[in-house]
Amino acid sequence: MKNLITRSITGILFVTALVVCFLNVMAMALLFALITALSVWEFTGLVNSHKQASVNRFICTVAGVYFFLSMMGFCSGLTPSTVFIPYLLTLVYLMVAELYAKAEDPVANWAYTMMSQMYVALPLSLINVLAFRATAVGEVYTYLIPLSVFVFLWMNDTGAYCFGSLLGKHKLFPRISPAKSWEGSLGGFVVVTATAAVIWYYTELYGVNELHLDLCQWIGLGLVVAVFGTWGDLVESLFKRTLGIKDSGSILPGHGGMLDRFDSALLAIPAAVLYLYTLTLV
Question: What is the mean pLDDT of residues 199-226?
Answer without folding.
Answer: 94
